[in-house]
Design brief:
This protein is α+β, with helices and mostly antiparallel strands and 139 residues long. Helix content is 40%, strand content 19%. The protein binds adenosine-5'-triphosphate and magnesium ion. Adenosine-5'-triphosphate (ATP) binds next to strand 4.
Length: 139
């Protein structure tokens, strides 16, 4: 059992498809053990994506991630990090496999509906960036 951190991004909350995304998550044996609807501040989004601060798409990314509500989640299951990355599909939905969240729901390379941690180490950091231990409940 391990954990990963997920964000359902503003393009998905805007289109009212968070339930469809949660269904894909649950159908793939990940359990949502914490979940909160919130709106990222500029500071919080910049801190979260600081690894991309020198990329040409950084300012647009921050503007998009703060443009509407997001759902932040902790997911638990076998190989949660790897499993969720697989279920999400490629960053660019054009390259994502059929059945993945991004293939089914993402609009384009930026508005790609979900975030998932890319390593066990980052999952721990990202979970702690958004959640207190007291807000996470195992089955
Ligand atoms: P995430 O970190 O959100 O799970 P990812 O790991 O698949 O996505 P990253 O390379 O970490 O992809 O990029 C972070 C986010 O920045 C992407 O999910 C997307 O929203 C945006 N992004 C990435 N590349 C581009 C690009 N070339 N143009 C516009 N936006 C981009
Ligand atoms: Mg990433």
């Amino acid at each position: 059992m391990n954990r990963t951190f997920s964000i359902i991004k503003p393009d998905a909350t805007k289109r009212n498809i968070t339930g469809s995304i949660n269904k894909i998550i649950e159908d793939n044996n990940l359990v949502i053990i914490a979940q909160k609807r919130t709106k990222l501040t500029k500071e919080k989004a910049e801190g979260f994506y600081s690894i991309h601060k020198d990329k040409p798409f950084f300012n647009d990314l921050i503007e998009y991630m703060t443009s509407g509500p997001v759902i932040i989640q902790v997911l638990q299951g076998d190989n949660a990090v790897e499993n969720y990355r697989k279920i999400m599909g490629a960053t660019n939905p054009e390259n994502a496999e059929k059945g993945t969240i991004r293939k089914e729901h993402a609009l384009n390379i930026q508005e790609n509906s979900v975030h998932g941690s890319d390593s066990e180490e980052n999952a721990k950091i990202e979970i702690n960036y958004f959640f207190e231990d007291s807000e996470i409940f195992n089955n």
